[in-house]
Recover the amino acids of this structure.
């Protein structure tokens, strides 16, 4: 198989002429905003692999620990600002009518960059949503309170640069948080039951939000796809990772943007590989469509 192309000008022309464009984004898109990835160098939280805390079993076993991990990710996401990569994608969505962005990110930075809601699907949910663990239907959308509750206050503390927070230091023991000190579902309580609340994200072994997969498949199979952008993802988690090959079978030229050279595996001579950060490459790659990117000073948080 011949190697993917790396010519920015050639890709710009293809994108400019493209009608239907699909993007799959992952944690790498938010690295330039200071948020950690799930795998590789950024994937360790204390002594735990981040992915090992993202399961219903981990929550059943120690809800306080899993909540602390997510409360810390919430705090980071609330403090973070969208970067040039988020803004470039949001602008592309405003210029290209048939562009759909599938993001695995739960940090909400794409919506905060102004990415139109109709042109993005948050496949793995939203870190700021809080839902009932027993699925009674209770949900708080875009809840920005930080800390989520007093027992999770440690996750909302900031330390000066260079000073490791005790929460992140595996040599400092964590106090066990009792389930009764975690957020409880008010609707279940009204019905005389008890249920914990949980972060509104999709954990391993859980289904993606209702109807979303069908909607994405409907988009995918409606017409051929011209370009598939694969941005900052290790493409290790399905069904998300499967969309690249589906789009390729629908005729798409695939462009992978990732600093890791391993991310180009599976690409052929019709495809493109841009080795580097999404914040650096996306504004350049989209410039013929979106012009020179302007980054606004503020990216407001909105509480629903
Ligand atoms: N720009 C672009 N890509 C980057 C950057 C950057 N600045 N920095 C790192 N990357 C790349 C890494 O090389 C890696 O390929 O981002 C990718 C991040 O991979 P993962 O940590 O595996 O994140 P992701 O692919 O989003 O994980 C998928 O796994 O645990 C679950 O639900 C979680 O949504 C997540 C899913």
């Amino acid at each position: 198989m011949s190697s993917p192309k790396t010519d920015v000008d050639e890709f710009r022309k293809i994108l400019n002429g493209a009608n239907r464009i699909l993007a799959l984004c992952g944690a790498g898109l938010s690295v330039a905003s200071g948020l950690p990835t799930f795998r590789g160098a950024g994937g360790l939280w204390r002594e735990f692999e981040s992915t090992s805390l993202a399961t219903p079993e981990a929550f059943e076993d120690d809800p306080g620990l899993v909540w602390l991990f997510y409360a810390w990710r919430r705090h980071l996401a609330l403090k973070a600002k969208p970067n040039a990569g988020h803004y470039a994608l949001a602008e592309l969505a405003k210029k290209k009518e048939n562009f759909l962005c599938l993001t695995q990110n739960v940090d909400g930075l794409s919506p905060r960059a102004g990415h139109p809601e109709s042109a993005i699907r948050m496949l793995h949910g939203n870190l700021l949503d809080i839902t009932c663990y027993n699925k009674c239907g209770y949900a708080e959308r875009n809840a920005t309170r930080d800390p989520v509750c007093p027992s999770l206050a440690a996750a909302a503390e900031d330390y000066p640069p260079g000073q490791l927070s005790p929460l992140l230091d595996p040599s400092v023991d964590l106090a066990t948080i009792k389930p009764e000190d975690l957020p409880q579902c008010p609707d279940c309580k009204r019905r005389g039951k008890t249920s914990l609340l949980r972060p509104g994200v999709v954990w391993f072994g859980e289904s993606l939000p209702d109807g979303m997969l069908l909607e994405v498949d409907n988009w995918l199979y409606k017409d051929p796809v011209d370009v598939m952008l694969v941005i900052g993802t290790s493409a290790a988690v399905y069904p998300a990772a499967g969309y690249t090959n589906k789009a390729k079978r629908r005729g798409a030229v695939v462009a992978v943007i990732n600093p890791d050279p391993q991310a180009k595996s599976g690409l052929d001579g019709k495809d493109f590989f841009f080795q580097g950060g999404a914040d650096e490459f996306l504004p350049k790659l989209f410039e013929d469509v979106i012009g020179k990117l302007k980054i606004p000073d503020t990216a407001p948080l909105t509480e629903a």
About this structure: The longest helix spans residues 63-79.
